[in-house]
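Structure tokens please, single chain.
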Amino acid sequence: MFVSNQTILSHQGQKLPPMLRLYLDYKKRYQDSLLFFQVGDFYELFFDDAIEASKALNLTLTSRDKNSENPVPMCGVPVAAADSYLNRLVDKGFTVAVVKQIGDPKTSKGMVERALDRIISPGVRILSSSDKDHRENYIAAVVPGFNEYAIAFSDVRTGKIFVKEAIEPDLVCYEIMNIDPSEIILPAEHAGKKVDKRLRWVREIGKTVREGTTIKFREISSSFHSREEKISGYSALDELAKKALRLLISYVDETTAGAEIAFLEVSHDTDNGVVAIDSATRRHLE
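Here you go.
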């Protein structure tokens, strides 16, 4: 779910304190995430993030500099109770970037140093300590070719990746529906053109997934990494499936903020005993 920057843009001409300027710096890096920004014993949200979170969590929306001509919206949650709020947001389809204080306020000169601690998304919840849900929770990377698609998907808690290769265009939505992912990653570019939600095939995927499933766009790494080549089963994949796997792993690495998930194996996922019906056949049956 993309968080609007309208409120942020309205404050750009305003002279902001260093802490809010740092908040905006992080926001530019993680534009499709709500930003939990630690200030002492609270995680605070500002600008449009505060408006979105206050609605989703039923929090009191307040503001900094109430007497200002353009006050900054804000809300917050206690650090000690943060995981319960994080999981509620992710359940609603949000992605949340958590920025923690890493310096000691008592000894720091000037502003306390901060760093990205983790990103929790609908498909990557492994770092959320309060998440006790043991149901399968898949994230899927879907990559189009010229006449076929490939899908790489995983419940990242298992360290296993499954791949579907050489999927006919008429069947890609059927395959996605069977996987039932919480989050879908698509390439930011295909055949030299930008990919976004206006494209027909992207709209069809959006109609297929259940409500609350997020769709994001990321660049596919053009280079092979030794980490991927060490994954058992990687060398047997076709080129399009390798792209899907690279897209999946690079996004998971982005969200885990340096806490690398140990993917150990990749295997082909097959629908033995299941008859797939393409769209033309389906229309005749109806």
